[in-house]
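Suppose you are handed only two things: the residues of a chain and a line of SMILES describing zinc ion. What would the bound structure be? This form records exactly that question and the answer produced for it, so the two can be stored side by side and reused later without any lookup.

QUESTION INPUTS
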Amino acid sequence: MARKKREEEEEESSGEEAGAKKSKKEKYVDPEKLLEEYLEEVKLGLNLSYLNLDRDVFRDIIKEPFIAAVGQVKTKPKVRTIVNRLNASGDALLEYIAAKLLQTISLSKMSDEQFEFVVYHVGKLVNELAATLYAEAKRRNRPDLIDFMRSLWNQSSSLRSPVTCPKCGFRAIMPDLSCKVCGYVMQMRELKDNLHLMEQLKDMASTNPEEFKEIVSSGYLFYGSLGPSAPSRFKAESGGIYYEVILTAQEKDQLRKLYSSLQQR
Ligand SMILES: [Zn+2]
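ANSWER OUTPUT
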């Protein structure tokens, strides 16, 4: 930002010299020509040679960030300067390159190095890409990459759910009980077991009897990141995953009995 400002000021002051502006403007460095000249060195400087990308492919991928890094300048910058600027944007640049790679080369045609690069730099795109990348990592028999994606998802996905999928281990069970990553569909019974729901409700009977009573009489509850809630008390956190859980007749019966035994104490 600071760089851009300075150059704008420079441009203004040069414009003050009457008539000089036009000829000065023609002297701006053409970033696309510069990219042709520096392409191989930029690839080396960003440590991306191992991806073995064709010259054309790499040019298309790096073009926008390169032009931004050059800026509007009248003196030709050294390649080292541009590479430093690009490297300064760190993960953001690598995530951008990963996204571009995905647009350019189909997953099944990527080399192992290219596929690894995409997985390691999927960043915020993990929500939308986890299922595709998971399937591809399975096809390539790369449990290490699945492990990496799983910890990324479980730590940082805004779609991580209160329930871990028994098949893939991602916290990706959606409100319809299907897994967003591997497609497994949980049964209601399995969800309840996974959450230790009955134990949680039994605890609630003594800690929060009013809410417990409401759950038993309405026959259902909501389950979100804060645990079980009676329908009237549940507030869906914005974007948070939650489940509507229906109690069976048998479960209601069991909970009613528990409640009356607590009352008799
Ligand atoms: Zn799954």
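WHAT STANDS OUT: DSSP finds 13 helices and three strands in the chain. The pocket of zinc ion is lined by residues 165, 167-168, 170, 172, 179, 181-182, 184 (CB under 6 Å).
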